[in-house]
Automatic annotation (TrEMBL):
<dbReference type="GO" id="GO:0000166">
    <property type="term" value="F:nucleotide binding"/>
</dbReference>
<dbReference type="GO" id="GO:0009636">
    <property type="term" value="P:response to toxic substance"/>
</dbReference>
<keyword id="KW-0547">Nucleotide-binding</keyword>
<keyword id="KW-0216">Detoxification</keyword>
<keyword id="KW-0288">FMN</keyword>
<dbReference type="InterPro" id="IPR013785">
    <property type="entry name" value="Aldolase_TIM"/>
</dbReference>
<protein>
    <recommendedName>
        <fullName>Probable nitronate monooxygenase</fullName>
    </recommendedName>
</protein>
<keyword id="KW-0503">Monooxygenase</keyword>
<comment type="function">
    <text>Nitronate monooxygenase that uses molecular oxygen to catalyze the oxidative denitrification of alkyl nitronates. Acts on propionate 3-nitronate (P3N), the presumed physiological substrate. Probably functions in the detoxification of P3N, a metabolic poison produced by plants and fungi as a defense mechanism.</text>
</comment>
<dbReference type="GO" id="GO:0018580">
    <property type="term" value="F:nitronate monooxygenase activity"/>
</dbReference>
<dbReference type="Pfam" id="PF03060">
    <property type="entry name" value="NMO"/>
</dbReference>
<keyword id="KW-0285">Flavoprotein</keyword>
<keyword id="KW-0560">Oxidoreductase</keyword>
<dbReference type="InterPro" id="IPR004136">
    <property type="entry name" value="NMO"/>
</dbReference>
<comment type="similarity">
    <text>Belongs to the nitronate monooxygenase family. NMO class I subfamily.</text>
</comment>
Length: 359
């Protein structure tokens, strides 16, 4: 046991949350394995249909009776023009030709219905609802509260953390700029400020009363102890679990995770229309020559989907999105249970050693 305010509230043994990772990595097997190991597994359900969410939640429940979280994307109203969308769709044809798939596809559905996704979480009465990209409407937060569902929002600045606390969430993920995947920023003024985890966590801790979860670049017991020292009540680790045995990440993606280093990633908006950190690819480099506005999320995400899917079928990582954080050299390809155990054991050793500094 390693008790903090958050472990008590979430009824988990260790202050470790396996980050929700939409797009395949967070399989029901991974989520259940993490929860069974005493941490909190989370399903990244942002891209899943309501039916797929229900099935995944039920699969997780067959493998664990412990708490786990489900994560959704708060919808946005993209302001891109028809002309910008059509222009991008046309431009992307050069990658479609390269990958041997149909050019000029019809513009697909942008995103799943958030309200219907939320409905499934309420009906299935999940333990934890986490979200990113904004703040859900009050009626949704109230329905979660009425059901006793623990609600976690994502902040990348102190202002966003205060806005989330004011809206009534139960805890906040402080997402530093080292983090893999999409930036959770939603207050436009300083969206590209990209504060590092070390600087962000204590400043958020000082400005809110609810528990704070440190996230971004945390890969092992050292990151866990450092985060607790900064005032966090838990950590949320994504990249650390990406190459695990239970992760659903594509084998080529896992290989890239294991063979990359701290300098391999960049933040890009070219895949989805929203800033996200991933391993640098040919697609990211080549798209720099695109001079017109990139359609906003989730439009660009929908436009590049056929390209990413074709690349994944062809085992070609250069046109896949390889989201990953800056802690890459510390990623391991062992089981999720081993990652949790090694993290906890290392943290215990460190806490003892740090204690000895005072003589
Ligand atoms: C592949 C991948 C997918 C992600 N998808 C989500 C997601 O669906 N929802 C979310 O809130 N955060 C998502 N994140 C961000 C994580 O919650 C977390 O902030 C990040 O993984 C922390 O940094 P780290 O990867 O260095 O541990 C994703 C991260 C990665 C690497």
């Amino acid at each position: 046991m390693m008790e903090t305010e958050l472990t008590r509230k979430l009824k988990i043994e260790y202050p470790i949350i396996q980050a929700p990772m939409a797009g395949g990595p967070t399989t029901p097997e991974l989520v259940a394995a993490v929860s069974n190991a005493g941490a909190l597994g989370s399903l990244g359900a942002g891209y899943l249909s309501p039916e797929q969410i229900r099935n995944a939640v039920r699969e997780i429940r067959q493998e664990t009776d412990r708490p786990f979280g489900v994560n959704l994307f708060v919808p946005e109203q993209p302001a891109s023009t028809e002309a910008d969308i059509a222009e991008m769709n046309l431009y992307l044809n050069k990658y479609r030709v390269k990958l041997g798939i149909a050019t000029n596809p019809a513009i697909p559905k942008f995103a799943e219905s958030f309200e219907e996704q939320v409905q499934v979480l309420l009906e299935e009465n999940v333990s934890v609802f986490s979200f990113t990209f904004g703040i859900p409407p009050q009626n949704i937060l109230q329905s979660m509260k009425q059901k006793g569902i623990f609600v976690i929002g994502t902040a990348t600045t102190v202002d966003e953390a205060i806005a989330l606390e004011t809206a009534g969430v139960d805890a906040i993920v402080a997402q530093g700029s080292e983090a893999g995947g999409h930036r959770g920023s939603f207050l436009n003024s300083r969206a590209d400020a990209r504060i590092g985890t070390m600087a962000l966590v204590p400043q958020i801790v000082d400005h809110v009363k609810i528990p704070v979860i440190a996230s971004g670049g945390i890969m092992d017991g050292r990151g866990l102890v450092a985060s607790l020292a900064l005032g966090a009540s838990a950590v949320q680790m994504g990249t650390a679990f990406l190459a695990s045995v239970e992760s659903g990440a594509h084998p080529v993606y896992k290989q890239k995770i294991i063979s990359s280093n701290e300098a391999s990633t960049e933040v890009t908006s070219y895949y989805s229309g929203k800033a996200a950190r991933g391993i640098l690819t040919e697609f990211m480099e080549d798209m720099r020559f695109y001079e017109r506005p990139v359609p906003a999320y989730p439009i660009q995400n929908a436009l590049t989907r056929d390209i990413r899917q074709a690349a994944s079928k062809a085992r070609n990582p250069e046109y896949m999105s390889l989201w990953a954080g800056q802690g890459l050299r510390l990623a391991r390809d062992c089981t999720a249970k081993e990652i949790v155990k090694q993290t906890v054991d290392q943290a215990y050793r460190l806490i003892n050693n740090v204690g000895k500094l005072r003589n």
